[in-house]
Write a structure and sequence with these properties.
188 residues, alpha+beta, 2 domains, four-stranded antiparallel β-sheet, three-stranded antiparallel β-sheet, 3 helices, binds zinc ion
């Protein structure tokens, strides 16, 4: 069967504001009874602590009938999130400056991005010169097909929850005003 995850990531949050924004979202989730206040290990993949589902977890999902959700892990430090639910087509990455699509399977491009990802994980900063317009673009600003990858400082990862409702995701985004969010569902 495997495990599924759905991540709501904030692509704009800075390292300084991430903990405060995370607290606001978690406080609201706890008030609504969607998760419990205390995060503990054993509710997510690996040892990361996660908030167990609360008595009203159903409020977050489209169809609660098949649900036996596990925890919600909250990340407030540099983290790469991915999605692997895209429709099987090639993954493209688009330059936010000129709008050119770049094939991320192309060897030279893949090498550029791979170097930048390593640098970003080490330092939190990395620019990639766009192959089309030559502008240096921060790694975090590139747009991926179906939000395939997100390099962020804030993310909420729901483990084995039924599909999160659109309205619920919009409510979460209200706590991140003016920020770009990404939704990354996947399976391990
Ligand atoms: Zn460009």
């Amino acid at each position: 069967m495997g495990d599924t995850f759905q991540t709501i990531a904030d692509r704009t949050a800075t390292p300084e504001e991430a903990p405060r924004l995370a607290r606001a979202v978690v406080d609201w989730l706890v008030t609504e009874g969607i998760v419990l206040a205390a995060a503990e290990p054993g509710w997510a993949l690996g040892d990361d602590p996660a908030h167990p589902p609360g008595p009203h977890w159903q409020k977050a999902v489209d169809d609660a009938r098949w649900g036996a959700p596990e925890g919600v892990a909250v990340y407030t430090e540099r983290h790469v999130f991915y999605s692997n639910f895209h429709d099987g087509g090639p993954v493209a990455v688009t330059c936010p400056r000129c709008g050119a699509g770049v094939d991320s399977d192309d060897k030279a491009t893949a090498a550029l991005f791979s170097t930048a990802m390593d640098a970003w994980q080490a330092t939190g900063e990395a620019d990639i010169a766009c192959p089309a317009c030559a502008e240096p673009v921060p790694l975090t600003d590139w747009d991926w097909t179906d939000d395939h990858l997100a390099f962020v400082h804030l993310g909420f990862q729901f483990w084995n929850w039924p599909w999160l409702g659109e309205e619920f995701r919009a409510r979460v985004a209200e706590f991140l005003p003016g920020h770009r969010t990404a939704f990354l569902p996947g399976k391990v």
